[in-house]
Known about the structure:
By secondary structure, the chain is of the alpha/beta class. It has helices at residues 18-29, 41-51, 65-79, 106-129, 153-156, 163-183, 202-206, 210-220, 226-237; strands at residues 9-13, 33-38, 55-59, 85-88, 146-150, 189-195, 247-250. The mean pLDDT is 95.
Amino acid sequence: xxxxxxxxxxxxxxxxxxxxxxxxxxxxxxxxxxxxxxxxxxxxxxxxxxxxxxxxxxxxxxxxxxxxxxxxxxxxxxxxxxxxxxxxxxxxxxxxxxxxxxxxxxxxxxxxxxxxxxxxxxxxxxxxxxxxxxxxxxxxxxxxxxxxxxxxxxxxxxxxxxxxxxxxxxxxxxxxxxxxxxxxxxxxxxxxxxxxxxxxxxxxxxxxxxxxxxxxxxxxxxxxxxxxxxxxxxxxxxxxxxxxxxxxxxxxxxxxxx
Length: 258
């Protein structure tokens, strides 16, 4: 990452592994103060220790309002100002459709993917709006402020093999666009990034058959890496404050579907 983020105060959820961990690491290496969040305390603490003094860990459920408040408060203390870069990355997948997936998993997935994201977007947006108090016109663009949400290609192209998961992403995609229209005129950029297949632990946790995953990866590979998505986040957040890259759909070159 070439663009410095020394003036930015970031929050990254789902940061204990995969995409979130690389996003947090890249932002920290570029100079940002970073608060990381995930449920798993041990790997999160190890990440914060590795990244050093301008990184702090807030472990806990990303959909819990007290945890969200703690993330925002810790970011303000760490960076000396309210967060100006929130990456809503925490999420969980689920193999199967509304017919074939395990209904016992639905509520937790909806809580994480939709309610958790919505609560963080709301809380972060309200904090960021404090920086717009009294400002009008182009003055609201005096500093860049970003909320970046990691969606999924299956939120745009819902597929039968993961339609319950895709439905949660379809919903959050709609929320992101609605929030963009509300907060953009007030100087806050709300961005959606929609990855295709990425090589992480996501597929295993979601319950996909390892042989099926291996076959898909062999067919369309090389698939995306977490660093590819982190690079998209950096690109979005590094734009001048009057420039908004509002939506990025990124696939492996050979991925035909979804």
